[in-house]
């Protein structure tokens, strides 16, 4: 659901220093909402169950205090969701797809108002005021993400699809790792490219149910990545397990691109649960790693590293269609490119950008970095995160953005623009981990003991 992903390149808009924490635990006994099991949240007022997926209360109003969940009447009332979550019939959708496909392309249509793929000569109901895409070519039928209208009402915020180049880069990374099976979580364009390529196989796990109209039943799972929930239950679990099993030959990788403002903790928990499934189904040892390629904004790096230490951020700027802001510098002439990077546990050197002139191979880091990134011999790494060239501050003993200066009063490097001594603005970095996007009070690197003391 692209809705939740307000594309702002301002880091303060994302991963805000929210006082709400997610209590990461098994969610199977939690109350349900239309998005599957809720998550347990905790703030200074107490602990409550809320929607795993909707950040905006308007989109999903569920709110149950933790202590109320013990009450019979609350449990009883929540049961209604079992019947409220609609069922999708993948088998008949696939039958319909093949019937539509057998027709001449001029007779094939998709109604976005009704979310139906249909044969035009057989249906008149969509004629009036419905949003219909007509004359679907074979290419369109197998690549619906390239033309399906965005789920959002706001037409200005187009879909957040990777450019063809980014999809090619992803398939290239997998090839370099000799991986041919892909679990596409929220990445329909990668799934569609993999399906069309003889060297890959894939399965799409996505919340957007429109994909079941275009996929064979074993190629799409209606899924929520924030609670690792499969809406079709056991049947889909079996399908995913089968996909894992098959990957004993050819390797496997999760390729995930969550909505922009999604929280790291539940996503990381989902990856851990999928890893456990992978080890169990594929009979892998307990310390075996499930390969992951996760597209997410660079300013989430400290959060991700904190929870998943094996995952590292690469410097490649992931490009998106129709988003000038998110395309590479050379395409748009803009100073900054996309803030989205790959977070991965695959060797960074396998992200080969040798044919992209915006990148260079750092012989010290031994992987490809943005051409504008400078290797700092003091920090011993290519330190830029956001595409600018960082400079080293000898007092702070770290590299900072070029727009920062060392303030003697504050005894730290601060953003030049609008600096007021003693005032920590949100876009400044955390005093503890020196990273941006949060203040010390909500630093992900805070020890558990510290956090508890703060809450008490
Ligand atoms: C930002 S788009 C990524 C699309 C990707 N860049 C591509 O080109 O295929 C986010 C994707 O995640 C899906 N999505 C949104 N919320 C989700 C959720 N809670 N669980 C699973 N998928 C979700 C959307 O339907 C969409 O396909
Ligand atoms: Zn919900
Ligand atoms: Zn219609
Ligand atoms: Zn370097
Ligand atoms: Zn440095
Ligand atoms: Zn400094």
Automatic annotation (TrEMBL):
Highest taxon listed in the record's lineage: Eukaryota
Residue ranges of coiled coil: none
Keyword set includes Lyase: no
Main localisation: cytoplasm
Key words of the record: Cytoplasm, Metal-binding, Methyltransferase, Nucleus, Transferase, Zinc, Zinc-finger
Domain CTCHY-type: 357-441
Listed InterPro entries: DNA_methylase_N6_adenine_CS (IPR002052), Mlase_EEF1AKMT1/ZCCHC4 (IPR041370), ZCCHC4 (IPR039846), Znf_CCHC (IPR001878), Znf_CTCHY (IPR017921)
Entry-linked Pfam families: N6-adenineMlase
Domain CCHC-type: 430-445
Molecular function in Gene Ontology: nucleic acid binding; rRNA (adenine-N6-)-methyltransferase activity; zinc ion binding
Compartments, record wording: Cytoplasm
Record bears the keyword Cytoplasm: yes
One cellular component term from this protein's GO annotations in UniProt: nucleolus
UniProt-recorded name of the protein: Zinc finger CCHC domain-containing protein 4
Originating species: Manduca sexta (Tobacco hawkmoth)
């Amino acid at each position: 659901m692209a809705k939740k992903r307000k594309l702002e390149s301002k880091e303060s808009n994302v991963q805000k220093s929210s006082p709400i924490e997610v209590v990461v635990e098994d969610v199977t006994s939690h109350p349900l909402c239309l998005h599957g099991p809720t998550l347990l949240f905790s703030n200074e007022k107490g602990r409550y169950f809320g929607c795993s997926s909707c950040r905006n209360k308007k989109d999903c109003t569920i709110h149950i205090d933790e202590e109320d969940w013990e009450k019979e009447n609350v449990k009883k009332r929540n049961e209604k969701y079992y019947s409220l979550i609609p069922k999708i019939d993948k088998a008949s959708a696939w039958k319909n797809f093949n019937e539509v496909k057998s027709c001449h392309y001029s007779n094939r249509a998709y109604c976005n108002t009704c979310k139906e793929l249909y044969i035009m000569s057989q249906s008149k109901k969509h004629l009036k005021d419905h949003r219909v895409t007509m004359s679907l070519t074979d290419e369109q039928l197998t690549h619906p993400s390239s033309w399906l209208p965005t789920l959002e009402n706001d037409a200005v915020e187009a879909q957040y699809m990777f450019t063809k180049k980014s999809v090619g880069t992803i398939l290239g990374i997998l090839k370099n790792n000799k991986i041919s099976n892909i679990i596409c979580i929220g990445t329909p364009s990668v799934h569609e490219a993999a399906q069309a390529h003889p060297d890959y196989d894939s399965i799409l796990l996505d919340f957007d149910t429109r994909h079941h109209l275009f996929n064979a039943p074993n190629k799409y799972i209606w899924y929520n990545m924030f609670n690792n929930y499969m809406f079709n239950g056991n049947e889909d679990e079996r399908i995913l397990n089968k996909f894992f099993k098959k990957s004993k030959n050819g390797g496997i990788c999760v390729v995930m691109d969550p909505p922009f403002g999604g929280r790291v903790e539940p996503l990381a928990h989902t990856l851990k649960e999928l890893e456990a499934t992978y080890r169990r189904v594929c009979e892998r040892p307990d310390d075996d790693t499930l390969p992951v390629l996760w597209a997410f904004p660079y300013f989430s790096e400290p959060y991700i590293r904190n929870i998943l230490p094996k995952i590292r951020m690469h410097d490649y700027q992931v490009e998106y269609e129709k988003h000038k802001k998110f395309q590479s510098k050379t395409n748009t002439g803009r100073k900054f490119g996309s803030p989205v990077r790959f977070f991965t546990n695959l060797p960074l050197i396998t992200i080969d950008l040798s044919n992209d002139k915006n990148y260079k191979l750092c012989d010290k880091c031994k992987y490809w970095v943005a051409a504008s990134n400078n290797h700092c011999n003091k920090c011993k790494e290519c330190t830029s995160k956001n595409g600018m060239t960082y400079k080293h501050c000898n007092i702070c003993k770290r590299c900072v953005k070029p727009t920062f200066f060392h303030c003697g009063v504050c005894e730290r490097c601060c953003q030049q623009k609008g600096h007021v001594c003693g005032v920590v603005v949100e876009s400044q970095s955390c005093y503890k981990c020196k990273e941006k996007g949060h203040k010390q009070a909500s630093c992900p690197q805070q020890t558990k003991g510290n956090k508890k003391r703060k809450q008490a």
